[in-house]
TrEMBL record:
Gene3D superfamilies: Amino acid/polyamine transporter I. It comes from Hyaloscypha bicolor E. The keyword Transmembrane helix applies. This is Amino acid permease/ SLC12A domain-containing protein. PANTHER family: GABA PERMEASE, GAMMA-AMINOBUTYRIC ACID PERMEASE. Its main location: membrane. The lineage of its organism: Eukaryota, Fungi, Dikarya, Ascomycota, Pezizomycotina. GO terms for cellular component: membrane.
Amino acid sequence: MDHNSPASAPVMRRKLRWYHIFMITIGGIIGIGFATTSGQVLAIAGPGGTLVAFGVNGFVAICVMEGICEMIVLWPISNAMIEFVRAFVDKDLAIVVGIAYWYSWACTMTALVIGAAGLLSYWNISTGLLNVVFFGCIFVLFLINCSGILLFGRIELAGGIFKLLLVTIIFLTMICVNNGAGGGPSIGSAFFNDGIKNNPNVAGSQFVAVIIAIPIATFSYTGVEIVTVTAFEAAKPKELRMPAKNIAYFTLIFYVLNIGGFIANIEWFNQNLPQFFSQPLVSLQTPNLGHTPWFPQTGLRSSAAPIIATLQVGMKTLPAVLTGLLMYSGLSAANASLYVASRTLYGLTRDLAYDDERFLVRMAAKLNVISPRTRVPLWSLLVSVLAFSSWLPFIKIHSGYTQEDLQNTFESIGSTGCLLVWASQCLAFIRYNKWLWKHKEELQGEHLQQFQRWPQKGFSSWASALQPGPAYVGLISCLVIVFILNTASLWNGQDQKSKALTVFLGPGLLLTIFLVLKLVNKRGWVVLDDRWEVLHSTLSNLTDLINPDIQTQPGSNPPTPSTNNIGEGEK
């Protein structure tokens, strides 16, 4: 309960078990991105470039999650990523991180619904009907998120299991197609052997093609950090350990296997592959394609890689079935995205008072209102739904943007925001680790021992002994992708306005907000003080947030099961 809230204000329920958390995270990661984004990357950089792009992003995600995992198991708190930055980096930057994370997931939800509705084009659905489907999907997602965390968790548990079955079916289907099922010849490694290529309409060289491909592939990895959003609704802190420790590794393996199956069965110059900002696909008359084009294209079209692969060999029923299943997968991921966006907005406004004398603050404080019946932040849900999706079809009608253009734009904005949040978490862990090092001699006793990182033992991440190395790699990589690799798509001079919007809008807006906050608040960054009392107080404040109703000290005997579970989770 917030100290500014009324005494009777309801709080969110702690009901989620580790399997709920793992499946909610899976639900947020596995949407339609792995099926559509992989095809887009394939059309730009060829099979070799696709594997490089997804491999690089998987490595970055692992480095980022190594630090997040350690902190979130110690402090399973509401608004965790914002609180970590506030405690160890900068209070104003923490606000910016909250804004970035909220809009990145609101954009992601919109992109996923656009993509799911767009799959209906397989049946040549009209634009008007697509808009009806779009709004209908948004409304259903809102109702599901209003139902309460336990029902939501059960839905995502069932949905996550279904998704794992779906991707298993797709993977086995790709093996069958590769070996000649469906009427086509055995492909083997013929398409793999094309290696790294470049579509000259997008990239001037193979190197540039890979650089462009890496930021595009990032979208498929956004969501590995959703574990932190579920933390405050976890039944016990130890429920976070398994999903936080393993989700990034699982995601990398998942993508390598499934995307490997796609690119083994689809020529990188297949004319059904999705375009990048309406830039033409490579022409079949382009020299050095790698091999002679295989099958003539059928009349049916789809932007999803597994469907393209089944269409390519002449299958008739399976492509339609896969289209329906991928639509469900995309909407399930959008459901998890709305959950993340609403919880982030709730956490961002958690400390605002209902009776503040400033009108705008009082209005913003409504976003931390919890429904007394379902214990969900209804106003935050509503604002997250309406922020981008309510006006989107009208923009499409009047601007002439294609469905793929809009999807590319929202995916890029969402990915960029998420990468900046990842970078902030790496920076928070680096400074946290540095501060602990200053006072490692004081970190003694039953409850302070959990913060002692020297020697390394008992931590919740796989590579804790290598820290802060992974955190530095994650920080530098995220910044390089956002501020350097992201600009590579501008180098060919085509569609500059749309690309510049996706590249510079998010970072520019966040920088402006940060500078305004600095000018207004006139406060500096968190000082890693040499006095033990200051660090002790910081650790205490974070520990208090596990149960805001009870004030505890990390060196005292915690009076609640919630705080005791922190120590248990680290043993």
